Amino acid sequence: MSSFNLSVCICTRNRPSDLKNALNSLYLSTKQVFEVIVSDDSTNNETMNLVKSFPNVKYVKGPKKGLGSNRNNALKYVNGTHVLFIDDDVVLGEKFVETIFSNILQFNEKGKQIFTGIENNRGHLVIPNDTNFLGYQNVRYNDFSNLRTIVINSTIFPKNLFNYVSFDEQLIYGYDEVDIAKNAIKLGYKIIICKDAVNYHFPSIENRDYYSPFKEASRIYVTYKHYYYLEKKYLYAFAFLIVSRMHNLYHLIRKEGINGVISFIRTLNLTRNYIRNFKKKVLVNN
């Protein structure tokens, strides 16, 4: 087990109290982590001052461009063989790392496996669910031997994965875990579930208003991108865009009344920009 070294990356923004709980939980792990990296997108110095009280934690300034970009920023400083990303409002389960690594030992250490545990979200157990046509993660797996999704706060990745793929930096919030999982599968990686490995999530209300406008745009963008570019289902992708926009408008009007039209236009514009920018990137790379 000594040949496996776990780097824990915590991306944070203006949540020093939650972050303190997350950092304290790492010291209670029955298997010691190799290193801890905090990438800070905060708008003040509270987080930086807090991390100073944890001498073994590496503090780095975040890019302040959203969660996808912040995760990639943390990855630049990783020296371990494996990587775990937890949000700043997550508490590491005492036996989580030990349980995952005991499963890793059953496989070739140079293999292409991603190990996902589960999340206890204030008493509700979150397990990987597949995505439906609209991209929502609400489809139960009948067979966990062919997973296509992960629980990001309870997933340990081999570091070598990130030699080939990175988090989409247009994703300010939401669906980055779907995106990275499907890209990894495309590269031949296999997702393995460890139901006994549990982390604890205590969702903070801090930043919810900041992140909220981006989540639906992220879902539409990520789902379209995978239909069109990964699966090459071009007609499927265009049909999805039409249906998803109608669904989004209907949902927002029901929720917000006439103001839902304004929210819809904002989501529409964000999605258009995401898709347009990604197409430009594909053209440049080709």
Task: From the structure above, extract its key features.
286 residues, Spore Coat Polysaccharide Biosynthesis Protein SpsA, Chain A, 2 domains, nine-stranded mixed beta sheet, 11 strands, Nucleotide-diphossugar_trans, Glycosyltransferase family 2 protein, hexosyltransferase activity, Glyco_trans_2-like
Please give a structural write-up.
The protein is of the alpha/beta class. The chain has two domains: 196 residues, Spore Coat Polysaccharide Biosynthesis Protein SpsA, Chain A, CATH 3.90.550.60; 70 residues. Helix content is 42%, strand content 21%. It has eight helices and eleven strands. The strands form two sheets. Strands 1, 2, 3, 4, 5, 6, 7, 10 and 11 form a nine-stranded mixed β-sheet that branches. Strands 8-9 form a two-stranded antiparallel sheet. A hairpin with a 2-residue loop joins strand 6 and strand 7. Helix 5 packs parallel to helix 6. The mean pLDDT is 95.
Fold blueprint:
Blueprint: E1 6-12, H1 16-26, E2 35-40, H2 46-51, E3 57-61, H3 67-75, E4 82-87, E5 90-91, H4 96-104, E6 113-121, E7 124-126, E8 130-131, E9 137-139, E10 155-158, H5 176-186, E11 190-201, H6 208-230, H7 234-256, H8 259-285
Parallel strand pairs: 1-2, 1-4, 2-3, 6-11
Antiparallel strand pairs: 4-10, 5-11, 6-7, 6-10, 8-9
Helix pairs in contact: 5-6, 6-7, 6-8, 7-8
InterPro entries: Glyco_trans_2-like, Nucleotide-diphossugar_trans
Protein name: Glycosyltransferase family 2 protein
Domain Glycosyltransferase 2-like: 7-106
